[in-house]
Write a structure and sequence with these properties.
With 461 residues, the protein is α+β, with helices and mostly antiparallel strands. Among the domains are: 151 residues, BirA Bifunctional Protein, domain 2; 44 residues, no CATH class; 113 residues, no CATH class. It has a 5-stranded antiparallel sheet, sandwiched between helices. The longest helix has 40 residues. The protein is flat and about 125 Å long. 22% of the residues are buried.
Length: 461
């Protein structure tokens, strides 16, 4: 985890405005408003919050009153709620615990992170809070905050560990694999089985290790499930390569990409039956075995005890970038046509995706998300079969997006335009007819016409 004190110490508290934009774009979430008066709350506008910060800061001659910090975890290691707790503790250690501040969670990058905005002017004394060696102080504060989080997590970790030790496992190797799924590490220290979490020893489980085999009937049932669903979902396993290694995480040593094996079959077995498949492989070589974690029956199975890996899965040399894989499978893909459209769409961007790398899902959208897609694509070409919105991870036909109501409105508009055009044509024809039916006279025959007219009058007399 890293912390940064941003240098944008604005008098206008632009940090509030920046985070407000993130919230409106649904890439930010307001987690905390601390130490504000009752009339400044979660319903207040960003302008009202900024005005309050300016009001407090105005009593001081400080030219850089804004305090703006960012706390970022690696990937998704910490949730928004955990980051909120860390942020509050961090502000206490920085000397801002009684200051008004906001915490906003962002999920628009590969790393979960929070922004904290406050004022450097003490709201009670009106004096500037000391910021000497602030960046060094921030590093010490984040370490203490993480330590506090560890203490709060202690009871939950102990409960989780107790539940994991209730599983049926047949070897230490299987137990190690099980604990690793929960971010725990089991090590032998002088003949003692010690469990570590983030490098800190949390429990001695030497006397809690008990080897048990699972129910044989359940093993047969799992085998039947594997054979049934390998014909329903793709059993083609492929590599995902995670290259998301940032300079902020890597300093002196080089970090190799993280390789994993995925398949639609293994994903669906987990979702439907709680059967988690872990492939065993070395480096980037083809897997040579697998383990089945039967979470619904608290049992770990050696894959070969159920069935040979080659009879359940097939493996390919094809691979895909992990970030792209996650992005593509975040779309609402529930048909072969949508899958083909996504493949073609990303192919145009130079990203080659195989059919078996896309998994069907039943993802739904909020009304607000749908309205955003409509706004982005209103007036788009209706002849395009599918509309694809990368911002909302949406794919759908024009008709499914805008519905029959809009088509009816467009039909009415078209009919009105047609009627208007017909009226114009009929009017033009009438004008032409009148032009031909009405006699016209030139200067050469005007006298003859008047003479004939007088003669008619005389005859009548």
């Amino acid at each position: 985890m890293i912390v940064k004190i941003l240098s944008s110490a604005s008098e206008e508290f632009h940090g509030v405005l920046y985070n407000e934009k993130k919230i409106k774009n649904e890439t930010g979430e307001l987690l905390q408003m601390q130490n504000f008066p009752s009339h400044i709350n979660y319903d207040s506008t960003q302008q009202e919050v900024r005005n309050y910060f300016r009001l407090i800061s105005g009593v001081s001659k400080t030219k850089t009153p804004q305090f703006h910090a960012v706390i970022s975890t690696r990937y998704r290691d910490h949730s928004s709620e955990q980051l909120k707790i860390i942020g509050e503790s961090f502000m206490d250690y920085m000397g801002y615990g009684k200051q008004p501040y906001i915490i906003v969670f962002h999920n628009d990058t590969d790393n979960n992170h929070i922004h904290i905005v406050s004022t450097r002017v003490d709201k009670k004394s009106g004096k500037k809070i000391k910021d000497n060696y602030e960046r060094i102080k921030a590093q010490k504060a984040i370490k203490k905050a993480l330590s506090d989080l560890g203490l709060q997590k202690g009871d939950k970790i102990k409960t989780d560990l107790d539940n994991l030790l209730k599983y049926n496992y047949q070897s230490i190797s299987q137990l190690k694999r099980l604990l690793s799924l929960s971010g725990l590490k089991l090590e032998d220290k002088n003949g003692e089985a010690i469990v570590f979490e983030n490098g800190a020893a949390i429990a001695n489980i030497t006397n809690n290790i008990k080897f048990n085999s699972g129910d044989l009937n359940r093993k047969k049932q799992i085998k039947a499930i594997l054979y049934k669903y390998k014909d329903i979902y793709s059993n083609q396993a492929f590599r995902t390569v995670d290259n998301r290694n940032y300079k902020e995480w890597q300093t002196d040593k080089k970090c190799n990409p993280i390789i994993n094996w995925e398949s639609e079959l293994s994903r669906k077995l987990h979702d439907k039956f709680g059967l988690e498949i872990e492939f065993h492989f070395k480096d980037d070589k083809t897997p040579f075995g697998y383990t089945v974690f039967d979470h619904s029956h608290n049992t770990i199975w050696k894959g070969s005890e159920i069935e040979k890996i080659s009879k359940i899965f097939s493996f390919t040399e094809k691979m895909i970038d992990k970030a792209e894989f996650e992005k593509i499978n975040n779309f609402n893909i529930n048909s072969k046509d949508k899958k083909e459209a996504i493949i073609n769409y990303f192919a145009e961007k130079g990203i080659n995706v195989e059919n078996y790398m896309i998994f069907f899902n039943n993802k739904s959208f909020s009304t607000e998300s749908i309205e955003k897609v409509k706004f982005n694509f209103n007036g788009s070409n209706k002849k395009v079969k599918y509309i694809i919105d990368e911002e909302q991870f949406y794919i759908g036909s024009y008709q499914s997006l805008f519905g029959k109501h809009q088509e009816h409105q467009e039909s009415q508009t078209s009919s009105q335009n047609t009627k208007s055009n017909i009226d114009k044509i009929l009017k033009s024809l009438a004008d032409i007819s009148n032009e031909f039916l009405t006699p016209t006279y030139t200067s050469n025959n005007t006298d003859d016409y008047n003479r004939k007219k007088k003669n008619k009058k005389r005859r009548k007399r």
